[in-house]
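Exercise 3.2. Students should predict the tertiary structure of the chain below and write it as structure tokens, then compare their answer with the key that follows.

Predict this chain's 3D structure.
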Amino acid sequence: MSFTDKAKNKVEQLTGAAKERIGDVTDNERMRGEGATQQSDARARQAKEAGRDVKDVFTR
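Answer key:
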């Protein structure tokens, strides 16, 4: 996984966390859900890329 991909995923996680917190503060269930989804999507992408990196190490 490149540094750029890691940075993009981290920004997505932080954006999702911010949306979730704003949703909590404003009692906006939709925004809270969007934030949680955005965070989990970013984590899933990061895990998928990390798995590919591990696979590449063992197939060399």
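Discussion points: The first helix runs from residue 3 to 26. The mean pLDDT is 90.
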